[in-house]
Amino acid sequence: MIEVANVAVTFNRGTPMETPALRGLDLAIPEGQFVTVIGSNGAGKSTLLNVLTGDAAVTQGRVLIDGQDVTGWPAPRRAALVARVFQDPLAGSCADLSIEENLALAATRGTRRGFALAVDRGRRAAFRDHLRRLGLGLENRLGDRMGLLSGGQRQAVSLLMATLQPMKILLLDEHTAALDPKTAEFVLDLTRRIVEDQGLTALMVTHSMRQALDYGARTLMLHEGRVVLDVAGDTRNGLDVPDLLALFARQRGETLADDSLLLG
Ligand SMILES: Nc1ncnc2c1ncn2[C@@H]1O[C@H](COP(=O)(O)OP(=O)(O)OP(=O)(O)O)[C@@H](O)[C@H]1O
Asked: Whose CA is nearest to atom 6 of ligand 1?
């Protein structure tokens, strides 16, 4: 269970640049739930992810992972608990290292082991199996530099790297936004497969309301640093994008003229 209790984050506090990014946000995610998150630009989505990774300091409230209060833990201390895939396909891996070396590095995430790039035969076979499951033929390219891969291939490997080690929550930070629609769909379906196969708890930020409704089991909408919509189960199954906009309008007494605010 992941719990974010009454969390506030204010950037540049006490200065003319003061920006409240989260304003008393409450959220509980049961183990194994795949949650999608939407919200307009500046709603606080990235800040929420940063609060979970320990990259943003909270000014109020608590973060609990499996009942353990990790609020004061810096990001490196949470590395074994939280994994993240970024929007930029270049961000999650090292271009100058081979696919195999990148996987070897990922396998040390959150452990006390040093950076061991050398790979023995057993581990190579395991990496090959993992790569085969991506269905991209990368199992035959273990020695290729990561920088040679396309954006979609790289994002698929980043996903694999993020999920090689056990974690308590997988954070997907608009991880298909930089891909063309067909590749994005492939990576999203791969995401669904990995999350379901491993029974992961996951939080996926997206600017697409369609994606938010199509993937996962629960959708949150953030607005001005708070959760303003939280739909799951039958309510969510029957929803289409216009329904989501209407729900938002009813909830907030404001109207979103179209998708533009949310699609960024
Ligand atoms: N490091 C920072 N320093 C100052 N202000 C910040 C910082 N990070 C975020 N903010 C501000 O906090 C607010 C929330 O930003 P955040 O990036 O969490 O929104 P978001 O929902 O992820 O938006 P987007 O969809 O545009 O990525 C915004 O007003 C943003 O400008």
From this structure: 11
Residue-wise pLDDT for 188-230, tens only, equals 999 999 999 999 999 999 989 999 999 999 999 999 999 999 9
Nearest atom (ligand 1) to Cα of 9:
12
Closest ligand 1 atom, residue 48 Cα? 18
188 and 75 share one domain: yes
In short, whether 21's Cβ falls inside 6 Å of ligand 1 is yes
Whole domain around residue 116: which residue ranges?
Answer: 95-166
pTM: 0.89
Q: Which of 166, 191, 217 is the last residue of a domain?
A: 166
pLDDT of 131 reads 94
Q: Is any atom of ligand 1 closer than 6 Å to the C-beta of 57?
A: no
**Strand-by-strand arrangement of the 60-65 sheet:** 19-29, 2-11, 60-65, 68-69
Residue 47 Cβ inside 6 Å of ligand 1? The answer reads: yes
**Residue 18, CA distances (Å) to 10, 51, 63, 232 in order:** 7, 18, 23, 34
